[in-house]
Amino acid sequence: MKILVTGGTGLVGARLLPRLLDAGHDCRALVRPGRELPPGITPVEGDLLQPDRLPDALDGVDAVVHLAALFRTDDVEGIRRVNLEGTRNLIAATKAAAPEARLVMASTSLVYGTTGVRPAREDDPLEATDAYPASKIAAEAELRASGLTWSILRLGFVYGDGDGHIDAVPDLIPRMSWHPARALAVVHHRDVAQMVELSLTGATDGRIVNVVADASATIGELAGIAGSEIPSSDEPLEHPWSGHLDTSTARALGFRATVPTVYDAQRDGIL
Predict the structure, then answer these.
(1) Partner of 64 at 20 to 30 A CA spacing, among 56, 58, 209, 246?
(2) How do residues 10-27 score in pLDDT, each as one tens digit?
(3) Domain harbouring 151, CATH code
């Protein structure tokens, strides 16, 4: 299968592309000038905010895996432009250049906000107002209304393969005002790849799917794994179901997390 990946040099894309290549796919990645890609992956220079460059990248593809996103920045307008306008541009270009292609978009578990009363399901109302998840909610709506063959993967906190994501958690605690007992839905890069592969078969067409491990991890646990002192708090956790996602949709499609918990990843040396 000929696949275009956006965000191929990012945290998720850089680890997904070699796995897609190993699975036998013909992979190309939309990259900015000067960015390096692993051998065997075809670079196509372009930018989601430069729509005139997109048709060449899409020529002849069977599927698009849309990972490109901007987050963890105070540039609210930049987040909106990249995540929403960039997605709009990609949708328009795909409809024009590769209308039969399957478009698989990575979204985020953060779209559910923090006020849930049980593990979040894909059809729950979306309440997030922070810039990044709000931009993803809007981008999801654009894709669902596009008329393309689409699927949306709501990824948990992606980690593993030496990406340093867990190591960043202690520095994020004061910035995000996170309670140490707050849970984060997590998913290892191996299982992101597993679900993307499943999506490329058409199994998730027209679906939104939560993609997370069997167990969430608390902020305190992640800080401890990162080698920091586990923070403490005598304040009650206001929304104890926040960060827990229902995985019944993914399971019904045949997904089983190969890395069930962060402690399994730690034991196996794949953090």
Answers:
(1) 246
(2) 999 999 999 999 999 999
(3) 3.40.50.720
